[in-house]
Amino acid sequence: MPDRHTLEETERAMKDHVGDLPLDFAAANALSNLFRAANAVRTELTNRVLRQHDMTWTGFVVLWVVWIWDGMETRHVAESADISKATLTGVVKTLEGRGLIVREGDERDRRLVRLRLTDEGTALMEQIYPEFNAVESEIVSQLSERKVSTFTRTLRDVVKAVELQTDARDEARDEA
Amino acid sequence: MPDRHTLEETERAMKDHVGDLPLDFAAANALSNLFRAANAVRTELTNRVLRQHDMTWTGFVVLWVVWIWDGMETRHVAESADISKATLTGVVKTLEGRGLIVREGDERDRRLVRLRLTDEGTALMEQIYPEFNAVESEIVSQLSERKVSTFTRTLRDVVKAVELQTDARDEARDEA
DNA sequence: AGCAGATCGTTCGGTAACAAACATTTTCCC
DNA sequence: GGGAAAATGTTTGTTACCGAACGATCTGCT
Question: What does the pLDDT look like over B98-115, one tens digit per residue?
């Protein structure tokens, strides 16, 4: 077992293990690269930008969402940040402890909690986000403009493809 | 602040917050879709395949790597699974507790720890992986074959773009 | 031979992540 | 108007996740 493995070696090794079953290597390869790319970008942005401000990835994303949409309700923030509401509760607690965000009850519907940035939180985002976007830009600049738009469109197609499956499953469940 | 926001609304809201600074919206949009897609796929595979076997995403990935490359050293497993070695230690502990994997010292170099699947672990992978790959295949099948290969190539380009930055940074550090 | 430096996996401390169960509040429907 | 059902955010319990510091081991150099 060598240190690094080529795609071909991996495919052969896989075939040895699954036997005769037909596998979709192209799909496996595409999605494994999807995760690899997402991880690489996330790590790079964390190390290069967020770390200096002692900020985690999720903390930053939540802060960003609330920065853009001031006073947003928590369930929408969770959805926008692509995390569960349970996770959001914890993250907000951390950010609140650092004086970057505040929770605010809604008068009309007392189940709701709205989030706002403090002045400190706003100042932080005004400083961090341009840095963050500059690194995003640097990374993407390695691709041609044309490739970027195709890439973005395909990524959206992937999200849609998953939603299609999820919806079909939900409907099937509702039958029962 | 409406419930859902179009891309245009978000861009306008961002401009209101960053003022005159020039932002790279295309880059921000591409990368935000990258994370969205990765999350969606990961959640779908977890819910549809792994959950039934009481298996976490990372646990599965580690198991998969060790299944394919039997006896691999932990640092290489961590690298292949795209997690830190500290995380791997914890995950292996969990998998070991469930009797799916074993740790094995290396005779020659006693710092090393090699990982192997138990019979139970192997049996589990032989069952899960085909299911896993079938769902991967379903998701990707929404895209044309041509799109998939372009997509895969671009994802690799993104990984390379990040590595380029990382390497440049490392070299700059070595100067000092 | 012997010791400075590198390498390897683990531990530690702190944060993130989610499902499920929960209390509170609102809505729906008769 | 009143009770069932739905919606909202929090708590609980478990696992994942990483950087930094650590002890053990190996390598290279002289």
Answer: 999 999 999 999 999 999
